[in-house]
Amino acid sequence: MSLRTRVRESVIRGIERDDFAPCGGDFYARGHIRTIARVVGVDPEPLVRAFDDAHGGAPQPSSATGGPWETDRPLVPFRERRSPNWSAAMAMAFAALVVVAGVQFFGGRGGQHAARQVAEKPAQAAASPHQQQPRRAGDPVAAAPRKNVELRLKARRATWVNVRGDKGRTLFSGTLRSGTVREWKAKKKISILIGNGGGVRLTVNGKDLGTPGQSGNVVHLDFTPSDPEAA
């Protein structure tokens, strides 16, 4: 039977046991039933109806207007493709060229005018080198020279200090405790001798110079109104 119907032997044995799972679905099962019935000389339709009754009934005919044939998008009417309007395209291209040429022309004139102004300014300055320019708001003002020298010392650790002013006059001589802050002023010069250079912090004429030496080193410094650098 398998050779005559071209249906696998395992499928035929399954149909004989009312097991239609090897057929691969109801559609193929109905086809196998009809093929086997014709080979053995039996009317296949009663057998197919019996199969349908046992497996949920015969399939309903599908309408061509429903199911997979329907679409949820409206049909867009076909529009005839028109040939490109070359006249309009050429007109737009010509207008674009006119705009670009105008921008380059007027931009070039503006650039030449600006360059001419820049070239004229150095010439005007050279023509009147002694002409005094008025001072504008925001221009830097030269700082006035200092009239005094100011020294501020903060002791980080206990240390001996000797400070002398103009003409060698002693301003201070002694030991400063940790945390002590002292300030001195002179007109021309201040000299300071520090027994522990790493134990103090100096500020000269408002500028913080930090620690002038290492711990345990003796440091001798001189300062004038033009410092903050050590003389």
- Bin the strand percentage: 15-25%
Give the terminus-to-terminus CA distance. Answer: 123 Å
Number of helices: 5
Structural class: alpha+beta
| Strand line-up across the major sheet | 4-1-6-7
Global mean pLDDT: 78
What Rg do the Cα atoms give? 55 Å
The main pleated sheet reads as: 4 strands, antiparallel
What fraction, in percent, of the residue positions are helical?
25-40%
The stretches of 5 or more residues where confidence is low (pLDDT under 50) are 64-72
Topology order in helix (H) and strand (E) letters: HHHHHEEEEEEEE
Counted beta strands? 8
The outline comes out as: elongated
Q: Which quaternary structure do these chains form?
A: single chain
Q: How would you describe this protein?
A:
With 231 residues, this protein is α+β, with helices and mostly antiparallel strands. The protein contains five helices and eight strands, in the order H-H-H-H-H-E-E-E-E-E-E-E-E. The strands form two sheets. A four-stranded antiparallel beta sheet has the order 4-1-6-7, with no helix packed on it. The protein has a four-stranded antiparallel beta sheet with strand order 3-2-5-8, with no helix packed on it. A hairpin with a 5-residue loop joins strand 2 and strand 3 (170-176). Helix 3 (26-40) runs antiparallel to helix 4. The longest helix is centred in the middle third of the chain and has 42 residues, at 86-127. It starts with a helix and ends in an 8-residue tail after the last strand. Mean pLDDT is 78; it is low at 64-72.
